[in-house]
Design a protein that fits this description.
Number of domains: 1
Distance between the termini: 24 Å
Largest sheet: none
Structural class: mainly alpha
Number of strands: 0
Shape: elongated
Radius of gyration: 20 Å
Strand content: under 5%
Order of helices and strands: HHH
Length: 97
């Protein structure tokens, strides 16, 4: 979520700089993907936060009932989600070089 927030703020910062320098030629051309990517990262952070909370509640209930069994499926889903976002970001950063 933090990295997504930084991307969105940096995107807004670049737009403000571009508006201030309207008489000069723009040195940095931005593809509008920074803001969208930042919002996707923030949304992914919110989803992971929600899934973590739900998993915590279920685990706490199982511990109280003495029937705890680990939840490998949630760990797999979150790992795949984070890896997918990381691969997307690597591709995005390489394309903008």
């Amino acid at each position: 979520m933090g990295f997504g927030f930084i991307l969105v703020k940096f995107s807004l910062f670049l737009k403000q700089i571009a508006l201030l320098n309207t008489k000069q030629q723009l040195v940095h051309y931005q593809k509008e993907y920074s803001g969208v990517t930042g919002l996707v990262l923030v949304a992914a952070g919110i989803v992971i936060l929600l899934l973590s909370y739900l998993n915590y509640r279920k685990t706490r209930k199982r511990i109280i009932e003495n029937v705890f069994v680990g939840n490998n499926s949630l760990i797999l889903v979150v790992t795949v989600l984070i890896m997918s976002i990381s691969i997307f970001l690597i591709g995005y950063l390489f394309s903008s070089l």
